[in-house]
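Re: that chain you flagged

S.,

Sorry for the slow reply, it's been a week of failed gels. I finally had a moment to sit down with the sequence you sent. For the record, here it is as I used it:
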Amino acid sequence: MGGTLKANKPFTKQNLDETYVKQRRASWVEQESRVAEKARDGFQKGFVQGMIGMGLAGLTHGAITLGSEPVAPWKRIPTLEEYYRGRVIPAEIEKIRQECAARSVSLHGALMDRTGWPAIPFDGQLLMSHQDALLIGGKVQAPPGYADHVLFTYPNLCEKCGTKICIELCSGQAITPGEGGVPAFDREKCVHCGACYWNCSQPLPGNPEKMNIKFRAGTGGLHSAEN
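Prediction finished late last night. Pasting the C-alpha cells below so you have them in one place:
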C-alpha cells in the first residue's frame, strides 16, 4: 500500500492488485506458502502421519505430502452422546445440558467434571500468552461502531446444535453460551484465529460444504496496547 500512497492513487481493487497483490505473489513468502499448503493435511489421519507428512513436504518442497481432503466438521465431530458412550448415559447428558443452558455455562466443562477430569488451577506462574491476557481482562483493539465479524447465519441451527464446539474451541472466550441456545459473541475478546469457523458442526441447508458460522473481515488488530 506504500507504493499506492506514494503514487497518490486511490485504494481501488485494481490499484491494490497492481501493487500489494502483485508483489506478494512474486515474493518468497508466496513460494513458501505453496510449499506448505498441504504440509499439515496428514494430521487429518493422526499425529504420526501429520508429522511425517510435514517432513516429506519440507524435504521435497511440497511435491510429496501425506495429505487428504479435509473432512467436513459435521462428518468428523461426534455427538456428545457418541463421544461419552460407555461413560455417561444419554439421559444424564441431556440433564446436564439443560442445567448448563439455564446457567449459561460450558456444557463440555461440566461433562469433563462429571467424568473425572481434574481442574487446572491458575497459580499465576504460567507463561502469559495473548489468550491468557484476554482471559484476565485484556481485549483486542477494535474501535466501536462496526458490525461483528463473527456471525451465526441461522440461529435455529445453533439452537439445535448438541456439541456447540465453537464455544469450547474459542481460546479467548469470545464465544460463550447465550440465550436460547444461540452462542453470544464478544468482539473485544476475539483473536481472529478462525477455530470456530473451521470447526462449526452445523452445515448450511442445501450447501453442506458451508458451515453456519460466517467469519468476515473485522476491525482492530490481534494485539492491543492495553494488554
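What I noticed first: Residues 2-59 form one domain.

Talk soon,
D.
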